[in-house]
Amino acid sequence: MTRSATARVAGYAALAAFGLLGALVARRPELAVLAAPFALALALGLQPGRPPQPRVRLTVDRERALEGDEVGVELEVRTDFPLERLELLLAVPSGLEVAEGSSAHAVRLGWEDERVLQLKLRCLRWGNHTLGDVRLRARGRFGLVTWEQQLWLPVPLRVYPRPEALRRLVPPRSTQPFSGNDVARQKGDGLEFADLRLFAPGDRVRSINWRASARVRARGTGDLVVNERHPERNADVILFLDSFVDARRGGRSSLDLAVRAASSLATRYLERRDRVGLVSFGGILRWLVPGMGLAQRYRIVDALLETEVVFNYAWKDVSIIPARTLPPQALVLAVTPLLDERSVAALLDLRARGHDLALVEVSPEPFADPGDDELDRLAHRLWLLHRRELRARFEAAGVPVAVWRDDAPLEAVLEEVRSFRRHARLVRA
Amino acid sequence: MGAWLALVAENEAVGTVGGVLAVAAAALLLAALALRLAVLVPAAVGLLGLSYALSLLVDGGGLDTRAPFVAAALFAVAELAYWTLELRDAVADEPGAVLRRVSLVAGLAVLVVGLGLVLLTVVELVDAGGRGVELLGVLAAVAALALLALAARRSGAGAA
Questions:
Q1: 93-112 in A: which are within 8 Å (CB) of B?
Q2: Considering only CB atoms, which chain A residues are within 8 Å of B106?
């Protein structure tokens, strides 16, 4: 621990010196009496003593939490020698705040004594946080000397985004061969009725539609009719997260919303037994090949937690994304603020290559002020027009674009995408 | 305390100057606490001490038996002012810490009164000692200052 003198030393020394000198000059012993307590405090307080050697342990009651959760933290401090006053400060990283208790404590410890200090932290923002920056300050007798030490006792805390409530998702156009929750367009064994056809050798008896067969027989043809059904299959869904640019204002940012949306979508699609992959397209390209199950969910969320905006001027396009990350019949759900030309070009390129693409635009418009003067407002309007034109380009290419502002539920945004895709299907038919 | 010193002064001019010094000391103390400037605390305490010294010099007379009580009060003012500055660090104290601290300051004040009375008694005893005792006093004062300087230097070296 680093020893240092406090402001009291200079103050008490000055008072003692002035008192003693005044007593000599004025020949009044009363002034020496005034100086005596300050001199005595200095003499007792500045005696070199044993430096404090506290041992500190930091524990967190869990390593994973959701946004808004409260996490219990314990600071355990032990010492072999008495400490009149030991101050402990746990530096709380941004994204967390103290919900209960205090991050700064002062304790008095005796011989071979220990204390356990408890506090609760509220997780404000998703991310990989690391607790462990602990500052210690021990005060000597009369507060004349302090010993300070900074400890680094790293304890990881992963805060996951709180999932949005989603009842219905965007159904993919094409399904995969494995069973799942999506009704396939093909006909086969399943639950959903698709069509009727004449009985053919090999058909199961249980698939005969007796009512329809009776009606056909009444017309005199005499053939049996069987039901055809749509099988339930799973789908490949690729979440395309645009992390080139982050629009930020105060404690809110477009990247926060995008990560929250991507996490919610990944969770819900994986619950439906779909294979979900991730492409984080930004200054650093990250990807996860499509997979299923709980392990894939944790892989995706962990990858999302590491998402950050990294400035990079290099031009990037779809060709740098590994081919197996983007299966040909996968639904690509892009979550993007549509601010960077590179991501816009990459998404249009994906569509041009025939991928089933849908866009959730995390609107950066609430993060941009129109400005005060006329010129600023004009520029803002031009920017809004440019954005509208950009959306029109995507829609002309058959890509639904749903604008998401954080005050609206994600469910409503997905409904916009679904209705666009229903409309587009009708037009094509 | 400044007001009391101004009120009990026998000389009217001393009372007026003492009052001014007391007001200045209070202003300095307030500024120290409001602006978190610890350097102003000894200045405020020094002004109060100066007010008392002024009354001693002008009013004259024999040994003032109030000196130990004034010393205890000045020490308590300084301790409480520094404590107030420490409290602004927003550190959560253990239950009972305030009571312990108040008891400590009160105990120190009582100790200071006792020490002052002992010193005054010693001064009275050696009052008839003449030049030799005076020289001894000067040497003691110089030695005390030297000890203080040495201690302050050690403290600084420890910090480095």
A1: 101-102, 104-108
A2: none
